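Let us work through a complete example step by step.
Step 1: write down the sequence.
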Amino acid sequence: MVETTDIFKVINAVIPVDQLLYKDQISEDYGHDEIGTIFHLPDIVVKAESTENVSAVMKIANEYRFPVVVRGAGTGLVGGSISTDGGIMLDLSGMKKIKELDIDNFTLTVEPGVLLSEIKEFTEDKGFFYPPDPGEKSATIGGNISTNAGGMRAIKYGVTRDYVRALTVVLPNGKIAHLGGKVVKNSSGFDLKDLIIGSEGTLGIVTEATLKLVMLPKITTSLLVPFNDFESTINVVPILLRSGITPTAMEFFEQNSVDFWEQFTGKVFPENQHNSYLLLSFDGQEQAEIEAEYEQIAELCLSNAAEDVYVLDDKNQRDIVWTARGAFLEAIKSSTTEMDEADIVVPRSKIVEYIQFVHQTAIDQAIRIPGFGHVGDGNLHFYVCRDDYDDATWKAKLTAVFDALYAEGRAIGGQVSGEHGIGIAKKVYLKKSADEASYSTMLAIKAAIDPKNILNPGKVI
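Step 2: predict the structure and record it as tokens.
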């Protein structure tokens, strides 16, 4: 096998040295993602600045059969951007140009290192709106595309895949493919663009994306609805959805998440000290229409066991509530010594049953499993907390909890991940949940596109 020193020299012949990190120059930040349960440093870091940089590196990696992992902001939760086999890490966080806003075709063309928060600021300042809304706003758009990120607005607007018009992708052999376009419809052969979206960097490297935009809603408001128990909270969801009104977001959380946030920030959550909450938002172009929608939803909640309905028409109060919801993950993380996460997605009709199962599993295993979720689309997030358990006990309990949670998810028709992806942490559960024909097809696609298995090896499948 070729030596890393030799690979570094070959790369340095086509990539300037100020874009390269080697050995002691590589910081520990490159060895983990947001959860931090998996750690491994790459041998070489290339800070790519262009599609041509990425193509040049991939040609070298392909020739020498050297593994390559792509990284953006490192906000992932399943180890998908960790160089578990060493090799080359392509850091795309510096590729952050916003290249074009096309107001006639309603598209925004960006490089993969642009942050979600930057897209929001840029588009909304000009009257446009990019709807996908994952909780981590410091994630890059490249990472969002890699995992087909969803977020809180998915119930009304859909997920990342629904807003990608075109991609420039560097394939494992270094060739550059241009997939999709600014067209609204496309039945021209296999949809390779959609194959790349959600493939977690195992099939190709996105170096440019053209995103679909919509007009920015003029009116936005929210409701905070407390309940005495989580069963009542979840049971009202299908009733609301059958009303014919689709909220922009429909979030569920329990009082323990509020408590963690208050301890984490030192702030006070509005109207706290209830057992369980539903947080809804509505958006549109007309004030009267939005008011009519949330008034009807409020009446349905009150007639179906809600303790009260708080209209968050004060911007400061609304910002506090939504900021808190966005920070629950960090708040839970700060409450324990270590944690791991499951973002399972289940049929909406099975949410109550599944949450009951999680609560009972926490009791049976004597371990904390706080959580919250996008109940409008059945995507639930649970966090297994280590607290004071020793290494051996923690590993045994974590395995037991995950085995139980994913087995129950399969039994009720759920899927392993709703939006965070598989990476390395969840690939054993993907294999268990997928039927043989589906799994073997994924293996065949990987082998066809990346026959040398150099692009993010050991991830997903």
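Step 3: interpret the result. The radius of gyration is 23 Å.
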